[in-house]
Amino acid sequence: MPERRPEPAPRGLGPGERDDAPRPRGASRTLPPDDPALDPRRPARIGRGATALLVAACTLGALQAAVMLTVEARRWYVADREVVRLEREVADLRSEAADLAAIAERGEDVRFREHLARRQGYVFPDEVRYVIALPSAPSIAPDELGDPPPTP
């Protein structure tokens, strides 16, 4: 006896076919066609490769944004520190300029000019300058040398 094959399940309608066949009891719709592109009720699916590519692009974009924010934050920090350093330098230069202006105001004072010249080691032509070199031995302390000689 030849084996009976079960009848194939009814398939969906192809393009241009009409559903005139009676439906079995309780059936509400026909089966969709084998090709998803032919079924208008089915949404189009994005392939797994396209989804992975989209996720990779979003991840790469987020990483790039994080790197850009880090670089800009570092630039801001370095610029802020540089501004503070330059403000401190400007304050020092203003203080030095004020000191030099005070010296320039006293430039006509003869006693002040003599004082500045003596601090730099200058003497009058009729004076003799003595330079005392202390011994370099570490065992002699400056207070052990005794009192300095009286000045004439």
| Major sheet characteristics | none
Whole-angstrom Rg: 50 Å
- The chain-level structural class is mainly alpha
Order of helices and strands: HH
The residue fraction in helices comes out at: 40-55%
Helix tally? 2
Low-confidence residue ranges: none
Give a count of the beta strands, DSSP E runs of length 2 or more. 0
Distance between the termini: 151 Å
For this entry, give a set of tags.
2 helices, single chain, mainly alpha, 152 residues
Overview of the structural elements:
- It is a single chain.
- This protein is mainly alpha-helical and 152 residues long.
- The protein has a domain at 36-121.
- 45% of the residues lie in helices and 0% in strands.
- It has helices at residues 48-105, 110-119.
- The longest helix has 58 residues, at 48-105.
- The radius of gyration is 50 Å and the shape is rod-shaped.
- The relative contact order is 0.04.
- The mean pLDDT is 78.
